[in-house]
Fold this sequence. Notes:
The protein is mainly α. It is 45% helix and 0% strand. It has one domain. The chain is built from four helices and no strands. It is elongated and about 75 Å long.
Amino acid sequence: MNNYLLTDIISFVAEGTVSKKVYENSDIDRDLRWTGYDFDELMIKYSEHYQVDMSSYLWYFHHAEEGNNFGSAFFRAPNELVEHIPVTPKLLFEFAQKGKWDLDYPEHTLPKRRYDLIANGVFWLVLLLIMIWYFIVRRWL
């Protein structure tokens, strides 16, 4: 059992998210609007700073992915397939005291393949082929 203070965790989150108003029950994703890669980086820093084993952490319950995901218009991303679970300074404090991410996630099943990412790849491939056709091939015809 570690001896961290909740105020230390709140300060850590405030500094990491550049947020002025952070409370013990602030949802880092929805209240502080810290998501995607930024959320991932914050959790990595949290894990290192407070020496928390994050091996059981499942990102898609807590925040969305970074950037545009055109494929999610046709196939839902992992975070859209599960119920959102807020990560709050209070939760971070609890797990910092334990030294491990100790959240019991609900039963869930994700597809074996990320069809949203496959659709993204197809989109970009088609766009590339159109550009090749437009800028290179049609000039030779």
